[in-house]
């Protein structure tokens, strides 16, 4: 278990966030990251290890619930408990918001993330068939790093991990939630 320093990220962290996002097959763009960092209804939590940004989680406040929109840990820092600790920090934030439930969506193939969420008390609520574009689409091959993964980002269905797009092979989204209050 690696000890990290957890804090809310701000616009001053934008460049470091852009670099960390490159570890994702479909990185959020600089503009998208800047938008979430300046949105008062969104909290971007980061974890630093030895002064480096090692992971982040994006959680959005909704009228009664909160949505975990993204979670990412740098590849060389995985399996050290950082995502588990980030989830604890996310839950602390949603409790301060008095959210009733924390919701998320995850690619059906992302078994590592699904195991992480189950371990953190999330239950499966259902499935959205063919929600995600295939990760192996030609456009992605030019920039994707060779890793499994998938985003929870939806931004109301238009986020980089969740935007429906044309293409034959698509992947289901697993809908999960955890009751908070
Ligand atoms: C998913 C992700 C955030 C997990 O981060 P992490 O810091 O490695 O997670 P943790 O170390 O806290 O793991 C906690 C538990 O989750 C499960 N888990 C995490 N990654 C796993 C993997 N690749 N395979 C199987 N189980 C995994 C395990 O049960 C693990 O406990 P253990 O290490 O004692 O076996 C990280 O792999 C990642 O950034 N992946 C790419 C982006 C992504 O998929 N984000 C989630 C989108 S929904």
Automatic annotation (TrEMBL):
It comes from the Bacteria. Signal peptide: none annotated. It holds the Pfam family Acetyltransf_1. Keywords: Acyltransferase, Transferase. The keyword Transferase applies. One of its GO terms (molecular function) is acyltransferase activity, transferring groups other than amino-acyl groups. InterPro entries: Acyl_CoA_acyltransferase, GNAT_dom, YpeA/RimI_acetyltransf. Residues 4-144 form the N-acetyltransferase domain. This is GNAT family N-acetyltransferase. It comes from Billgrantia montanilacus.
């Amino acid at each position: 278990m690696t000890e990290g320093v957890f804090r809310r990220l701000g616009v001053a962290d934008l460049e470091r966030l852009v670099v960390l996002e490159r570890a994702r097959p479909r990185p959020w763009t600089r503009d998208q990251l800047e938008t979430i960092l300046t949105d008062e209804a969104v909290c971007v939590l980061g974890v630093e290890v030895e002064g480096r940004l090692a992971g982040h989680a994006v959680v959005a406040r909704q009228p009664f619930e909160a949505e975990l929109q993204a979670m990412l840990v740098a590849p060389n820092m995985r399996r050290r408990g950082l995502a588990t600790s980030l989830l604890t920090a996310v839950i602390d934030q949603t409790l301060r918001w008095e959210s009733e439930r924390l919701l998320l969506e995850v690619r059906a193939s992302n078994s590592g993330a699904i195991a992480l969420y189950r371990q953190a008390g999330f239950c499966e609520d259902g499935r959205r068939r063919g929600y995600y574009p295939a990760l192996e689409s030609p456009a992605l091959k030019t920039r994707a790093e060779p890793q499994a993964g998938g985003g929870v980002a939806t931004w109301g269905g238009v986020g980089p991990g969740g935007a429906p797009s044309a293409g034959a092979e698509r992947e289901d989204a697993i809908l999960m939630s955890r009751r908070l209050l």
